[in-house]
Amino acid sequence: MNNNLSQNNKKASYKKSNLKIDYIICLAMGISLGVIYGIKYNKLALALGLGVTFGSNIGLILKGINKEK
Q1: How far apart are CA 55 and CA 27, in angstroms?
Q2: CA angle 26-32-38, nearest 5°?
Q3: How many domains does the chain have?
Q4: Structural domain harbouring 62
Q5: Do the beta carbons of residue 52 and residue 34 sit within 8 Å?
Q6: Whole-model pTM?
Q7: In this structure, are residues 27 and 59 in contact, taking their beta carbons and an 8 Å threshold?
Q8: What distance separates the 2 farthest-apart alpha carbons in the chain?
Q9: What is the 3-state secondary structure (H, E, C) of the chain?
Q10: CA 49 – CA 35 distance, rounded (Å)
Q11: In terms of C-beta density within 10 A (0-12 exposed, 13-18 middle, 19 or more buried), how is residue 23 classed?
């Protein structure tokens, strides 16, 4: 009984860390897209803000999708 409980805890913590990694990847993608946009149009501050916003939104959407499974 006790062994089964610890296995479930391991699975839960693995899923949480996996989500965190996905979220960080999305944030990084958003920031890099923002930097590319900023270099192209010379609006770096605006582009970084948009990149962070889009990146975090994509991360949150992914979190929601993973919760439903």
Answers
A1: 4
A2: 135
A3: 1
A4: 2-68
A5: yes
A6: 0.41
A7: yes
A8: 61
A9: CHHHHHHHHHHHHHHHHHHHHHHHHHHHHHHHHHHHHHHHHCCHHHHHHHHHHHHHHHHHHHHHHHHHC
A10: 10
A11: middle
Which pair of structure tokens corresponds to residue 5? 């409980």
pLDDT tens digits for range 11-32: 555 556 666 676 777 777 777 7
Residue 51: Cβ-neighbour burial (10 angstroms; 0-12, 13-18, 19+): buried
Q: How many residues does the chain have?
A: 69
Phi, psi of 21 (to 5 degrees): -65, -45
5 pLDDT band (50/70/90 cuts)? low
Measure the CA–CA gap between 36 and 43, rounded to whole angstroms: 10
For residue 37, is pLDDT > 50?
A: yes
